[in-house]
Amino acid sequence: MCVASAGWRACSGLIPDTLDGPVSLLLASLRPETLEDYVRSVLRQLLLPDHEELLKTLWIYLEEDHSLQHAAQRLHVHRNTVLYRLHQVARLTGRSLRRTSDVTALWIALQAWAWSRADGPWPSSTS
Predict the structure, then answer these.
(1) How confident is the model at residue 116, as a pLDDT?
(2) pLDDT band at 19 (very low <50, low <70, confident <90, very high)
(3) What is the Cα–Cα distance from 122 to 100, expressed in whole angstroms?
(4) Which of 16, 59, 79, 103 falls 20 to 30 Å from 90 in CA-CA distance?
(5) Long-range pairs for 27-30: beta carbons < 8 A, 24 or more residues apart
(6) pLDDT of 34 above 60
(7) What is the Cα–Cα distance from 84 to 82, expressed in whole angstroms?
(8) Any idea what DSSP says for residue 118?
(9) For residues 98 and 11, what is the distance between their CA atoms, to the nearest angstrom?
(10) CA 74, CA 64: separation in Å to the nearest integer?
(11) Do the domain assignments include residue 63?
């Protein structure tokens, strides 16, 4: 059974492979409106179309376990470009990528955001 609200969906038994087990259980237990509010409160301006590049950089950086080098390779940019974008992410969200609680909030919000998209975050996110 799927519930959709303002572009968000919650489907029991339909959870993308990108989500961690515990995170998927957490997300599945929340109302779509609650997820949407959480994602908006954490990711803020990163959700604007103009900032998709920053959102993708953050996603890949966290997927690569905070490795600037690996993120840069996946994004086909210089390491310093990744660093610059991450500074922009911190500025726009008000969250530090050095603080565990902030990184956790960002990762859960990114997972919820990805879950809300039928096609996943980016077609090449696992490449």
Answers:
(1) 78
(2) low
(3) 25
(4) 16
(5) 27/111, 27/112, 27/115
(6) yes
(7) 5
(8) T
(9) 33
(10) 9
(11) yes
Q: Report the CATH number that the domain containing residue 94 is assigned in CATH.
A: 1.10.10.2840
Residue 68 β-bridge partners: none
Q: Structure tokens of 97? A: 């990528």
How many structural domains is the chain composed of?
1
Tell me if 123 is assigned to some domain. Answer: no
Q: Tokens 């908006």 appear where?
A: 40
The letter for the amino acid at 94 is G
Dihedral angle at the C-alpha atoms of 22, 67, 98, 48, nearest 10 degrees?
Answer: -80
Please write the tens of the pLDDT for every residue from 45-92: 999 999 999 999 999 999 999 999 999 999 999 999 999 999 999 999
Domain assignment present for 112? yes
